[in-house]
């Protein structure tokens, strides 16, 4: 937090009484400026570097094309063997 100058990354007191060190806290004020990208360990905490993976189910056409490709690959593999 002190290394990158991002106002969204702050230190907060831990709610755990056994933990003495403060914890990193991300405010809702992040605008995705990319300043925290300069320091790798801070970029992990920043919500602007969050990676989203969209998973979609294959359609009938996609499954058909996949089966056709697999059949062609099997025939080509059998022909070279």
Structure description:
This protein is an alpha+beta fold. 31% of the residues lie in helices and 10% in strands. It has one domain. The chain has a two-stranded antiparallel sheet with strand order 1-2. The model has no long low-confidence stretch (mean pLDDT 76).
Alpha-beta content class: alpha+beta
Number of helices: 2
Question: For the report, how would you describe the main beta sheet?
Answer: 2 strands, antiparallel
- The helical percent reads 25-40%
Q: Quote the distance from N terminus to C terminus.
A: 60 Å
Instruction: Pick out the low-confidence regions.
Output: none
Rounded mean pLDDT score: 76
Beta-strand content estimate: 5-15%
Q: Helix and strand succession?
A: EEHH
Tell me which oligomeric state these chains represent.
single chain
Could you give the order of strands across the largest sheet? 1-2
**What is the rounded Rg?**
24 Å
Count of structural domains:
1
Which word captures the global form? Answer: elongated
How many runs of DSSP E, i.e. beta strands? 2
Which properties best describe this structure?
single chain, 81 residues, alpha+beta, two-stranded antiparallel ribbon, 2 helices, 2 strands, 31% helix
